[in-house]
Structure formats: C-alpha cells, structure tokens
Predict the 3D structure of the following.
Amino acid sequence: MATDAKRPKIDDEKRVLDPLKNFLLWCDSVKLTLSDKVYLSKEGTAAEYGMLAKEDIEEGHVLFSIPREVLLHQGNTNVKKVLEQGKKSLESASGWVPLLLCLLHEYTCTQSHWKPYLSLWPDFRKLDQPMFWSEEERDKLLKGTGIPEAVKTDLKKLQDEYNNIVLPFMKSHPDLWDPEKHTLELYKSLVAFVMAYSFQEPVEDEDEEEEEEKEPNPPMMVPMADMLNHVSKHNANLEYTPECLKMVSVRHIEKDEEVFNTYGQMANWQLLHMYGFAEPFPTNSNDTADIQMSSVYKAAVQVAQSEADKKLLMDKWNMLCEMEIVGEKGVFIFGQSGSLTYSELYTTLKVLCLPVQDFEEFRENEGWEEDEEDEDDKMEQALSFDGLTGLSEEWKCLLHAAAALTLDSYSEDVETDRKRLEDQGALAELSSRERRALYVRYGQKSILQRLQQFTKHTT
C-alpha cells in the first residue's frame, strides 16, 4: 500500500474536529470495549447519536462493556475529596448537587479525563427539553399535559439549589470553581444533561426482611450507554456487575436495526419532560393519562342536588385527605389497560358515593377491615377498561365527568389533534416541538376518550 507522509497529520486534524471519532479513541484507551457487531452513528438513528447493528446479533450478546473506573460521578474525580468533606452542606431534595458540581468542574476543565466524552455535547440545548422552551410555547403546546407545571417546579428548584447550596460552596473553593464561569445558565444545562443521560444503579436488597427502604443510589454518567436511544419495545438492557456495566441484547437484532435501551416504563409526557423526545403515537405502550384527584371531587359536586349533599361531599373529601388517599395536587393515573392507581381511585369513588349513614359508620371505624390481597385484585379488575362496564352508574358518571373536565383542560380539542396526526402532509409541516407535543397530547387524550367510552351512561 502506498504511504503519504502527510496523512497522519490530516487524521490528527480530523480527530480533533470529529468528536465521535475522538470519543471512540478515548474508549479504547480506557478499556471500554465495543463489540465489532455494532457502531455509533449520527445518521439513521432516532436522535442525534445512536447505535446500529453491522450484522445480525443474537440474544444475550454483550454489545459493550464499561469498566467502573470510567463512570463519571462524584466519587470518581479529582474533586472527590472536597465533595466528600462538604457532603453535609451539599444535601438537597434532588440529591444531584455533588454530581452537578463534579460536572461543572469537569466540563470546563481542559485537562479533564472525560473531555473526549463531554465534548460530544458542545451545546446541551440540542437536548431540547421543555425547560429550554419559552413559557408561552410550553403553555400553547403542552397545556393540560402536566409538563408546564413540572417544568416550572424544576426551574424554581434548580435556581434555589444553585443560589443557596452550589454558589456558597463554589465561593468557598475558588481554586476549583468560578461563579463567573460556572453560571446558573451552565448549571441549568447540566441539570438537563443529568435528566436526559444519567443512570441510577438499582439498590440491591441484601436482606429482604429489612423494613427500612434503602436510599436510592446517586445518579452517574455512563459513557457509551447514554448514546443509546429509548423505545418501550427495546432490544438491549444495561446490566451491573462489580467490575463493569454491560449492555446486553435482550432479543435478536437485525442487521442495520437500531439498538435501543430502555429508560424504564415511561409515558410520553415523562419522556418529553426529562429527555426531550416522545415516541410517535401510538407506539408507546407505557403511555398514561392523569386525572387530577380534585376533578373527581368536582364531578361529584356538579351532580349534588342540594347544599346538604355538597356539605356531605366536602366532609367525605376532607376525610379522604386526612387518610392520605387523595391530595389537592394528586392524580389518578390511567394506562393502556385501565387505572394504575386503582386502590386510591376505588376507595375515593366508594367513599364519595356512600349514603350518609354508611359514611358515618366508615368515619367512626376509620375505614374498612377487609382481606387486603383479595380486595386489591378486586379493585384492579373493577377499574381496568374491561371491568369498567360492571361499575354502578353513579361511579361511571363520576369517572366520565372527571375525564371530560380533564379533556377540557387542553388547549386543543381531540378532533383537531386527531386530524393533524392522520394527515401526513400536515404532520410534516409541524416543527419538531409541535410534533412531539402532539404525540404527548393525543396519547393522553386517546386514553381519556377510552375511559369515557367505557363509562357512558347506559340507561
């Protein structure tokens, strides 16, 4: 083969310019092994980066293996000691502050061990989670989905966390952090990065008899694993061992097929909120729709005949609140096969529809004494879509009205969204944000419509 003396220099330049190639060279250097049956790509994948099969892959094949030393977390960087010493002052509701401080340092450090990995994301705004949208855009496209409220809460929490915990800590360690460089804006971007790409190792139950629940493991960044995209019908899964983390195929993967991991059983609103994407309708088998608990109460008040009935309903609702079965900001969740919060919903419907004497007895006894296991199965079946037709007309009326109140909370009606989805030309003309918001909205509305169909008044 002919050689060219200038060739290595060109390759070096390309390596600097191509973050993906640079990352793969780094993977080799840190003993992160990638199967020769797969490759990373920015083309032919569901998102910016993804993994594709070069050839057919059998079930159980190790697609890549990541040594634990390569994982990026607060216990594995050169700021480890400082973060450990300040552990008490870094406690927060999210539990993310140590990792975020670690990322603030590593992301802006030119000599960072993880520079080739972090350079894959020169601009976190490409993630395009709704936290980067304007408030007007969120309200216009996502009203009724629960996302605008979740984002508002996130932004308030992260701002408080930065001002009250992160900033004082950085100021006390000026040799490692600089508030001029490590700004609230960068912190917000890194929160989005952790939301979209971090992993949490499952907590192992060493003693199943221990009553106290163990604290969840803190999040960590897992190079290579976070390049894989998600679908509910995934074909790969991350396995944790003491020495390394391994991505393993869970079924046969065809040549040229994308390799998909799972982020868990995620509804489209959760995927958009946390990761910045949504599965096209109707492919997400884990999609859900929420009905505000207070909407069921409002539905009951709407049909109350007298002031005495309304007073009784208020007593019933207050009792349910005291029992912590419902809450003002709580939701009843419906999935593809019916209610997922069937225990709370069943009790709520039962109490709201109790005759006055039965309610007085219920209040005196502070609930019912029943066989919990049998009762649980009974409630689940009764509030599945298959079981809804067997409910009393009173219960069905409340569910039907609560679903209607929920459908009214969206800015677009069901028919308008349905027509957009079915018209491929109109769908193609939508912006990426409009299309993702449509998948979220219509997925929820279709579940609420099913609920309404099964609870129609039949007499």
